[in-house]
Design a protein that fits this description.
Layout lengths: L1 H8 L4 H14 L5 H7 L2 H20 L1 H12 L3 H16 L4 H19 L4 H14 L8 H10 L8 E2 L2 E2 L1 H19 L19 H16 L9 H21 L3 H7 L3 H20 L2 H13 L3 H16 L4 H18 L5 H14 L8 H12 L6 H28 L3
Helix pairs in contact: 1-2, 2-14, 4-7, 4-11, 4-12, 4-14, 5-7, 6-7, 6-8, 6-10, 7-8, 7-19, 8-10, 8-19, 8-20, 9-17, 9-18, 10-20, 11-12, 12-13, 14-19, 15-16, 15-17, 16-17, 16-18, 16-20, 17-18, 18-20
């Protein structure tokens, strides 16, 4: 609790706070030394490092500026430019990791904001939370969905149509529709007319092709459940290395490699790696296990109450802790609850996934995509307070969760 309060209160020192907290967990023995490195999700770390190496090349090529020009030309006002970028990120995130999606789309949003001389915070935050939302739409969109598919024996198509009823994909799209209405209200004052200028000329198409190749390979890799654990991260790293080597050869400047590799991305990487260790310590201490059994005890024999507690408790816990260990702990608990209630577990599974995936949107540190988005803004010398983030994320999340809450119950629970 102290860690999270300090992270919220000291946005410029988030990485240092998380690192010191991780060190305390290790020193107190909650995370043994032999568990420190395994506790870190190196796949996510490598993905962020690889994409943050490609992003400067992508920006320098002029492609984000050209995409920004096209968006500016097509949109009637700033409000719709922000919403279209968020929807674009959401569509990609249903099939590509949320962090990778943010790293692809956020540079375009930042460029649009610079051209329109407005703050990029609303657009970048909207992109991050829209990406998290759509991660629950398909079996390959988020780690929690992959875990559900493996635990419940579901395949890719079951997320679209399951046992004769619409699946999670359509529930999430309903949530997105309500979230768009919230964005229309939140950004109602962003009604500045957009006047398009000349289209920026793209100087180099190779960085765009490299990022497109990353998207294609990440999408393809998601269909292989038994792939090596670092597959996605290595894809991003390999294409970053290709891009840097080509850029050095093109400009005949060896110093470019160091300038692209160092940057200020260490802040984001240290913050994320440290939080993985903190969550491992919390899990080892038994807090997540105790919370899951408390939920089970409160529900009793009431199916609707069990469903409601699981979904809303998942929203709450995922706002502060990584949803992956939480979902891993809760999936077997939910199965036991369903068996005790004499019902199929799908209703409770879907409530768990909706709550845990969407709940990560509430706080700046509730999801890796949020941390990544704030890291990109920090690279622009923009610090985002918890309050500024939550003014957008909380109403967005509540609209999506409430609509999903009723939709899942209508589709899967109305017979109880």
């Amino acid at each position: 609790m102290i860690t999270y309060l300090l992270i919220i209160a000291l946005p410029k020192a988030r990485a240092q706070v998380a690192f010191l907290s991780a060190a305390v967990f290790v020193l107190l023995g909650y995370v043994p030394l032999n568990e420190v490195l395994p506790a870190i999700d190196w796949n996510v770390i490598l993905m962020i490092r690889g994409m943050m190496g490609l992003v400067p090349l992508f920006i320098e090529s002029g492609m984000p500026a050209r995409l920004a020009d096209l968006i500016i030309w097509k949109m009637p006002d700033v409000k719709w430019a922000i919403i279209v970028l968020a929807v674009l990120a959401a569509g990609i995130s249903a099939f590509v990791d949320n962090v990778a999606t943010v790293l692809m789309i956020a540079p375009v949003a930042i460029t649009v904001s610079k051209k329109l001389r407005i703050s990029p915070v609303p657009a970048v935050v909207s992109i991050a939370i829209a990406s998290n939302l759509e991660g629950a739409a398909t079996m390959v969109g988020d780690t929690t969905s992959i875990m559900l598919g493996g635990h419940a024996g579901m395949d890719f198509l079951d997320f679209f149509w399951f046992e004769g009823r619409p699946g999670l994909f359509f529930v999430v799209q309903l949530g997105m529709l309500f979230a768009i209405q919230v964005m229309l209200y939140l950004f109602r004052d962003y009604d500045q007319e957009i006047i398009g200028g000349p289209l920026t000329k793209v100087q180099d198409y190779v960085p765009t092709l490299l990022i497109a190749a990353v998207i294609i390979l990440l999408s393809a890799a998601s269909f292989f459940p038994d792939k090596p654990p670092l597959t996605n991260g290595m894809i991003c790293i390999i294409f970053m290395v290709i891009g840097i080597i080509r850029d050095m050869a093109k400009k005949k400047d060896l110093s470019l490699a160091w300038s692209l590799i160092k940057g200020r991305d260490a802040f984001t990487l240290v913050l994320l790696a440290s939080l993985f260790i903190v969550i491992k310590g919390v899990s080892n201490a038994g807090i997540i296990d105790q919370a899951s059994f408390l939920i089970s005890g409160f529900a009793g024999d009431n199916v609707f109450l069990a469903y409601s507690i699981i979904l809303w408790a998942s929203v709450f816990f995922s706002a502060f802790i990584d949803n992956i260990p939480y979902v891993a702990t809760m999936l077997p608990v939910v199965g036991v609850m369903a068996s005790r209630l004499g019902m199929e577990p799908h209703l409770l599974y879907f409530g768990l996934i909706c709550g845990a995936t969407l709940g990560g949107n509430i706080s700046p540190i509730g999801a890796s995509a949020n941390i990544t988005a704030l890291g990109l803004l920090r690279n622009e010398d923009i610090e985002v307070s918890a309050g500024s983030f939550m003014r957008i994320s909380v109403p967005f999340t509540l609209a999506a969760v409430i609509s999903a809450y009723f939709a899942v119950w209508y589709l899967w629970g109305s017979g109880f």
